[in-house]
Design brief:
The protein is of the alpha/beta class. The chain has a single domain, classed as Spore Coat Polysaccharide Biosynthesis Protein SpsA, Chain A (Alpha-Beta Complex), CATH 3.90.550.10. The chain is built from four helices and six strands. Helix 1 (about 40-50) links the parallel strand 2 (about 30-35) and strand 3. The longest helix has 13 residues, at about 115-125. The protein starts with 8 loop residues before the first strand and ends in a 19-residue tail after the last strand.
C-alpha cells in the first residue's frame, strides 16, 4: 500500500470559512475511490475508509467481487457499480456529481489516508483560499531500479 496519501488529491467545491462551522472536520469531505479488479485491496481499503463518514466507491466493471465485498464491509458507503471499465478519469469526474460535501478527496484503492492528514489538507484550503486543489507529498521512498538494469561502467 502506498504510504500516507500518495495518490490522494483533494478538490475544492466552493467552501468558504464563513459557510462551514468547523473548518477542520472530516464531515466536510467525501472520499471518492475508483476501483477495478481491486478485491485483493478490500481489507486495507476498508480499514482506510471505515473512519470517514462520506465515502463513494465507483467500481469500474470488476468481475472479482470488489463492489459486493466493499458493500458488506462499508455499509455507510455509496457503492456505484459500472457495467464496464469506463476509465479512471471518467469515473472520478462522474463521481463528483454525487458529492454533497464542500470538498472531495480522490483516493486510489491502494492508498491510505488518516483523518489527521485529511485535516491538514483542509487546513491548507483555509490558509490559501485561492487554491483550487491541494495534494499531499509522496511519502514513499524513491523506487530503486530493478536488478536487471545495467548501470554505466
Amino acid at each position: 500500500m502506498h504510504s500516507a496519501t500518495h495518490s490522494a488529491r483533494t478538490a475544492h467545491r466552493g467552501a468558504s470559512e464563513a459557510n462551514v462551522k468547523d473548518h477542520d472536520s472530516i464531515e466536510q469531505v467525501t472520499i471518492i475511490c475508483v476501483t477495478h479488479q481491486s478485491n485483493l485491496l478490500v481489507e486495507s481499503l476498508t480499514a482506510t475508509l471505515q473512519v470517514f463518514p462520506h465515502v463513494l466507491v465507483i467500481d469500474n466493471g470488476s468481475s472479482d467481487g470488489t463492489a459486493s465485498a466493499l458493500s458488506r464491509r462499508l455499509p455507510h458507503a455509496k457503492i456505484i457499480e459500472c457495467e464496464s471499465n469506463r476509465g479512471f478519469a471518467r469515473a472520478n469526474n462522474e463521481a463528483m456529481a454525487y458529492v454533497d460535501t464542500p470538498f472531495a478527496l480522490l483516493l486510489n484503492p491502494d492508498s491510505d489516508i488518516k483523518p489527521d492528514a485529511l485535516r491538514t489538507l483542509l487546513d491548507a484550503f483555509y490558509r490559501y483560499p485561492s487554491a483550487g486543489i491541494v495534494a499531499p507529498p509522496n511519502l514513499r521512498p524513491a523506487p530503486k531500479p530493478p536488478n536487471w538494469v545495467r548501470t554505466p561502467v
